[in-house]
Amino acid sequence: MNLPLATRWTLYALGAVDGQRVRRPRDPVAAWLLRRQPGLLPPTAHPALLTMIRARASIIDQMIEEEVTRARQLGIEVAYWGFGGGFDARWYRLLALMGDVIRSHREVEEPPILEVKGRLLAESTFSRAWGRVERRPLVPLEWSVAAEVGRTPLVVLEGVASRIPMARLQGLLRAIRDTCPGARVILDVPGFFQDQPEDASPVGAASRARWGSIYDSRAFSLKIAELRRMGYRVLEEVCLSARPDLRGPSGSVVCSGMDALRVLRLAAEGEPDPVAAGRPG
Questions:
Q1: For residue range 152-195, what is the model confidence (pLDDT) as tens digits?
Q2: pLDDT for the residue numbered 226
Q3: Which of 138, 170, 247, 251 has its CA 20 to 30 A from that of 227?
Q4: Where does the pLDDT of residue 197 fall: very low under 50, low under 70, confident under 90, or very high at 90 and above?
Q5: Radius of gyration of the chain (CA)
Q6: Res 268: pLDDT
Q7: How confident is the model at residue 23 (pLDDT cuts 50, 70, 90)?
Q8: What is the spatial distance between Cα 163 and Cα 278, in angstroms, rounded to a whole number?
Q9: Angle formed by the axes of helices 28-36 and 5-15, to 10°?
Q10: pLDDT of residue 195
Q11: 157 burial class (0-12, 13-18, 19+ CB within 10 angstroms)?
């Protein structure tokens, strides 16, 4: 299937169980989709990338849980917007957590991905939960949010920085702030992998740059000063440095490596700060 490589990687990372460890896949919907449609598998497997994606999902799940807890304590209703999530299934995986706080759930994604996802899930035991999700099939240039009276938007941009250029991601962030002041936004910026035509580096390349400092990687291509200038306050920043595979004397992998990862939780507030770009960040 001609789907973004980043989307297929994420599906595989959350739905497959590699090696001899006895554990359940992180996402039951992803596991079902892979069994049902093997064509969704990525062409090759790179353990460092899979480790990064699984860590990213765990961190973002935790941030969502904290946002839901905060909203519950404040008596706030939340409108959930997921952008570029591919085959993400938090609408099922986190259903018990979200239920009484997240009153609407929307997925904004490219039409071919939503078409495949909808067709496959319509035949599954997950169809009832999936039916509650409002789907917006749009190309990335048309991605946008809409304000809801009495509901605070929680916008999740997981994996979006791997699929669209940074300039376009910044444009989306500006649109979110302009349309929904007060929105809470969660996004990640990977240190190495990008599913972009201009990315000439092969995803599996074990280059010195890949395992270098996270501060010299693509993870910091989005500056805090720029976020301030756009009118965002950084609530939390989680950075995980890259590490290569740990190999035994025979050369076999004892512990898989991990690509660098940066996850940000933001609040869109006030007017954009025109002088913030001059501050350290």
A1: 999 999 999 999 999 999 999 999 999 999 999 999 999 876 55
A2: 95
A3: 138
A4: very low
A5: 19
A6: 95
A7: low
A8: 28
A9: 110
A10: 56
A11: buried
Assign residue 240 a region: left if phi > 0, alpha if psi is -120 to 50, beta otherwise?
beta
Ordered alpha helix ranges (H), 122-271: 127-131, 166-179, 224-229
222 Cβ neighbours under 8 A, 6+ residues apart: 161, 166, 169, 170, 189, 264
Structure tokens at 204: 């599996």
Each domain of the chain, given as residue ranges in start order, spans: 46-278
Report helix angle 111-121 to 28-36, nearest 10: 90
Angle CA 194–196–201, to nearest 5: 65
CA proximity to 82, closest of 65, 64, 70: 64
Superfamily per CATH, domain 46-278: Vaccinia Virus protein VP39 (3.40.50.150)
Phi, psi (degrees; rounded to nearest 5) at 126: -90, 0
Distance (Å, whole) CA 264 – CA 262: 7
pLDDT category of residue 205 using cuts at 50, 70 and 90: very low
Contact 262, 239 (CB under 8 A): yes
Q: Which two tokens stand for residue 114?
A: 């939503």
Rounded CA-CA distance 264/114 in Å is 26
Q: Which DSSP string corresponds to 201-216?
A: S-TT---TGGGS-GGG
Task: Please count the other Cβ atoms lying within 10 Å of the Cβ belonging to residue 75.
Answer: 7
**CB distance 217 to 191 below 8 Å:** yes
**In whole angstroms, what is the distance from residue 23 CA to residue 27 CA?**
12
